């Protein structure tokens, strides 16, 4: 992160700035890594507050780097800060941090002067041993048991759907007396997830992982295995595939299961025997069992009580805009940024799940979700959050623009929940503020959540 900040300082227009979504992802990842490292690393456990300040300073510099604009007037200040950030990076990576950051004297010129001054202040506070606070705000923790666990029929429906799919596969498995097809029942249990979108995501990841692993195993068995009979040859064949599986499994949550599936399927197909495999029937049966199992499970989950997360998406996006409004209305010293970062990550994951649902099928209970501007709505959160932070740093004392922005965002959140057409609202911002015109344009470009043609047609049919 610090290396990317230094590159942005050296050349702001050389590459795209970090998005708010990337900042949110880095925040969640750093929080998780810090929690693990504080228990496993004696150096961090001995002084957690100091390391928490370093984490906060890194995250703050990363957030500020997204606000930099190309301007030759402040090139010397940017180069000075770039060197300081690189020194901080080297001190953290090569040895104990001793606060070795040189004094920073900025000229105060250029369009980035407020952003650079904020970054310099953060680095100087860290060098002097002063605490640097992480993003503030209380993040709501998910309860161990859902509040409606005993009264919501969706949980019972999910259990019954999973049971029915498994029973159908079991009857077929026993009636056909096809012993190699035992993966058909396992697939029903594995791909069953709360929510139709999550189920479809797991389905495609399982299919893709199993097919790729089977193809790799088949190629190695047919073309490579006959030419080697040593342990080194076995390792040379299996280790690259397992390394690929581990690399994918360590990636994003959206593809991690595919890596697990590749490693598991390849190991069962290639490493289950104490001799070279010559019969490919077992490999074929495993793949067929997976394909039939996910097919049956997908059909059952789609046509029997389909559990779409589309209604939750509207509520989640409206709550996200209210979080953003709270950040804009709060004073600079008490911006509740942490809940906004977590809410953004959750909303992004929910959008991916909803988009994975078969929205075009007639059995889907929310076909109008196909026309919702989900991605555009989330993208505007990123843009407004970034621009509002830049506007806050450059705002004159008593400027009410951000408060008016917050009120407009709260009204927009209500329109998301009601699927109402947004009236044109123009924000009057301080034009002398470098981020004023862009912020006004971002608010004017909020997507319209009015009724789509699909929703209008469905409403006409029901009436």
Automatic annotation (TrEMBL):
The keyword Transmembrane helix applies. InterPro entries: Memb_transporter_dom. GO terms for cellular component: plasma membrane. Residues 168-299 form the Integral membrane bound transporter domain. Coiled coil: none annotated. It is a multi-pass membrane protein. Belongs to the YccS/YhfK family. PANTHER family: MULTIDRUG RESISTANCE PROTEIN MDTO, P-HYDROXYBENZOIC ACID EFFLUX PUMP SUBUNIT-RELATED. This is Tripartite multidrug resistance system membrane fusion protein.
